[in-house]
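RECORD TYPE: inverse folding
INPUT: structure tokens
STRUCTURE:
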């Protein structure tokens, strides 16, 4: 049992603007920054009057200042907890702080750079690395991801449900058994056999979380999220199984209702958040008071779920995230005060061991049989009748298996039957004699030579096995690279076709998002388990399903999406990541080539027949092979790390894409609704009238004004034909005239639209295509 108080750490978020000097200071204790002093400026009126205290001091296990990166935070906070989870103890890390103070950044990570990976992906990486190293135990890992919003639990990982809102996700409820153990009904557990599978689950949960967000429910801010790694370990042949859980918790923003200044639905949410955080505080106060018999865990879902983590069987760590800007000082002080109370809670973590009943029954049955046999021998219970043919045959088989078994501990089990025991001795003697007769024809020197060669052969066999394994791995990686290259070429070909199509024909809408999809090949072509491949294939369709986008967009919508994408604030990050991804791919390719080279060298050396006796040539050969093997291993490790990075980057890009599409859909729907309202009084739409309201980008993403008139979203000015020298047909002339007339400097003409969004888009797409045909005719005749 390990008795420990909850460990508290503080992390200060980098400030955007320059803050007044001396708003806080960090003192070192035994070379570690452990004491934080917050100085309240004298002019600060909100909440702190001048005659109040000016400075507040708080102690932490360690404080991470603005310049601390994600790696340092992981190494110092999460790694020790992950180690105790690997040893069989429960662990919890939770981030607490006001909205925007960096909880999600610390727990999950930033969505822009690979180096911004937070505690969850780094912990997964670390745990799977350790599991791979430890071959003494059999491990199984499961993942669950729970979101608690307004006191209701939702399963973020159920792939059976297509969520477009939080209410579509399966609801999770709490059940308590007579021993007061908490069970979460409807929370799915997913096995992850590799880091990649676990990261896919994290991605799936985060995407569901993002999709479920609406402007009314900024889930990330207003909900608590608990990502749990369930680890089971067992030693082969041993009936004891160890279970450990690691909760990684991103709590809702801790600001007070008064400060949020919200009403309606948001006020309800704020109250729920405040209530659940209030209950968390109540539990913590109760736990920090000695001799308190009743701890009010049951008051809220979050405290019920984290019951063990707070004052129970768990190694718990809290990260107080602080945004030490002038306007956030009061919230930062209250976060620190909360942390000080948390630090008083003592937990008693025990190894969660239990005996697997099936293994225990088998062990006991064996023991009973052995005891019965012993008893039969001791009591002299003898059988005299002769053994049957079948029994003799069975015994011979047992003897053969016993002789062939390489395990020195293996036993020949024939039971307490002296007839069988005698027959076994008799049969063994026969085998030995037969061997002796045959053996005499073999020369003594040859036997000696064979003895020398035996270990060499074994070593050679082992190396060949490893080589075969690595060969397979390299083939898989090379195939992945080839596929990626082909995909990139296809994408290039497709985009050039699209460009020429949009210039000349504009006849068929292009499926959206092709440019990002290309990068998925590596992931989807990676050999994984059935479950993983189902997840990988789930992801691309998730982009459509979850954002509610159709697989194919109308031409107008496609054009609007392209412009929206181009002007979106995230486009620079997406481009940057694409570049990094490309770079990593070429690095991986180069590395794969070097690995192939090293492998062939090892192969050549191993193909040379080894001399029968050890000699200098063999020694040289051996050391060369060893050298190559070392080089090969290092490169292979590097390639694996690159693969993880590439996969992570792809996940980041997928996430950005889902976000982009979702924002586009929201914006599109909003604009369409507004215009529908405006057009309700006049069914005919004024095509290019400047008075017609144009689509506007959301404020934050707006760089250039978009000229996308009415719901069709087609920029007609872009598609107007250039002056033409040939005479168009009558039909073409009238169509052309109707469009020409709609130019801003001419009297506006109207094109009747149906009011149905899709039909209108199609009508306008048709007009656009016709215009292009006209334009091409013009160009052709010129
Ligand atoms: N240590 C840090 N370094 C760089 N950027 C950070 C850091 N901490 C937070 N940020 C950035 O600040 C912003 C807000 O952070 P984050 O979303 O993690 O806050 P939060 O506390 O989780 O907020 P919420 O309660 O709304 O979920 C994000 O853009 C994030 O990238």
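DESIGNED SEQUENCE:
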């Amino acid at each position: 049992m390990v008795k420990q108080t909850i460990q508290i750490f503080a992390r200060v978020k980098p400030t955007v603007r320059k803050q007044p000097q001396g708003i806080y200071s960090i003192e070192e204790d035994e070379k570690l920054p452990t004491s934080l002093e917050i100085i309240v400026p004298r002019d600060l009126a909100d909440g702190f009057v001048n005659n109040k205290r000016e400075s507040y001091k708080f102690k932490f296990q360690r404080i991470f200042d603005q310049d601390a990166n994600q790696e340092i935070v992981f190494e110092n906070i999460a790694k020790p907890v992950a180690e105790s989870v690997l040893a069989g103890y429960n662990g919890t890390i939770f981030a607490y702080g006001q909205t925007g103070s960096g909880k999600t950044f610390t727990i999950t990570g930033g969505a822009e750079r690979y180096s911004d990976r937070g505690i969850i992906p780094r912990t997964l990486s670390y745990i799977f690395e350790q599991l791979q190293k430890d071959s003494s135990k059999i491990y199984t890992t499961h993942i669950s991801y729970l979101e608690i919003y307004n006191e209701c639990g939702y399963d973020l990982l159920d792939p059976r449900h297509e969520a477009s809102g939080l209410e579509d996700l399966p609801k999770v409820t709490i059940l308590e058994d007579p021993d007061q153990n908490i069970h979460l009904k409807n929370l799915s557990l997913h096995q992850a056999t590799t880091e990649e599978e676990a990261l896919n689950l994290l991605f799936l949960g985060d995407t569901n979380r993002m999709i479920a967000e609406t402007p009314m429910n900024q889930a990330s801010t207003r909900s608590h999220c608990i990502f749990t790694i369930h680890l089971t370990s067992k030693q082969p042949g041993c009936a004891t199984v160890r279970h450990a859980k690691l909760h990684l918790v991103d709590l809702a923003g801790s600001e007070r209702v008064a400060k949020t200044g919200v009403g309606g639905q948001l006020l309800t949410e704020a109250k729920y958040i405040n209530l659940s955080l209030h209950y968390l505080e109540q539990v913590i106060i109760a736990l920090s008071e000695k001799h308190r018999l009743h701890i009010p865990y049951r008051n809220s879902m979050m405290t019920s779920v984290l019951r063990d983590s707070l004052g129970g069987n768990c190694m718990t760590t809290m990260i107080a995230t602080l945004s030490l800007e002038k306007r956030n000082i009061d919230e930062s002080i209250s976060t620190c005060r909360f942390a000080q109370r948390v630090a008083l809670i003592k937990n008693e973590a025990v190894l969660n061991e239990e005996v697997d009943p099936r293994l225990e029954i088998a062990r006991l049955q064996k023991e009973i049989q052995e005891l019965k046999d012993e008893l039969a021998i001791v009591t002299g219970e003898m059988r005299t009748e002769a053994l049957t043919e079948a029994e003799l045959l069975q015994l011979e088989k047992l003897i053969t298996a016993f002789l062939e078994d390489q395990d020195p501990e293996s036993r020949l089990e024939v039971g307490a039957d002296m007839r069988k025991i005698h027959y076994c001795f008799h049969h063994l003697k026969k085998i030995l004699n037969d061997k002796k007769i045959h053996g005499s024809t073999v020369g003594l020197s040859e036997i000696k030579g064979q003895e020398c060669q035996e270990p060499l052969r074994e070593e050679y066999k082992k190396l060949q096995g490893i080589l075969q394994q690595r060969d397979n791995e390299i083939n898989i990686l090379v195939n992945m690279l080839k596929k990626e290259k082909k995909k990139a070429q296809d994408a290039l070909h497709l985009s050039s076709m699209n460009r020429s199509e949009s210039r000349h024909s504009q006849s068929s809408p292009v499926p959206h998002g092709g440019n990002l999809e290309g990068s998925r090949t590596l992931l989807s072509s990676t050999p994984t388990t059935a479950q993983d491949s189902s997840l990988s294939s789930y992801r691309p369709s998730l982009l459509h399903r979850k954002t509610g986008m159709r697989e194919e967009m109308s031409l107008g919508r496609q054009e609007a999406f392209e412009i929206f994408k181009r002007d979106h604030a995230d486009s620079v990050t997406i481009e940057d990541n694409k570049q990094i991804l490309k770079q990593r791919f070429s690095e991986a390719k180069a590395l794969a080539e070097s690995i192939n080279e090293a492998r062939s060298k090892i192969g050549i050396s191993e193909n040379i027949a080894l001399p029968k006796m050890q000699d200098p040539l063999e020694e040289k050969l051996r050391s060369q092979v060893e050298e190559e093997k070392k080089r090969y291993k290092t490169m292979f490790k590097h390639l694996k790390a690159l693969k993880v990075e590439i996969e992570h980057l792809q996940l980041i890009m997928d996430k950005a894409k889902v976000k982009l599409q979702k924002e586009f859909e929201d914006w599109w729907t909003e604009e369409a609704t507004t215009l529908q309202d405006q057009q309700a009084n006049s069914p005919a739409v004024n095509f290019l009238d400047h008075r017609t309201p144009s689509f506007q980008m959301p404020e934050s993403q707006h760089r250039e004004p978009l000229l996308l008139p009415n719901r069709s979203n087609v920029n007609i000015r872009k598609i107007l034909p250039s002056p033409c020298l040939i005479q168009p047909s009558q039909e073409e002339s009238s169509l052309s005239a109707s469009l020409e007339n709609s130019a801003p400097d001419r009297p506006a003409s109207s094109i009747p639209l149906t009011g149905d969004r899709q039909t209108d888009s199609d009508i306008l797409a048709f007009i656009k295509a016709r215009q292009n045909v006209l334009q091409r005719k013009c160009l052709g005749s010129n």
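NOTES: Residues 257-262, 500-551, 683-750 have pLDDT under 50 and may be disordered.
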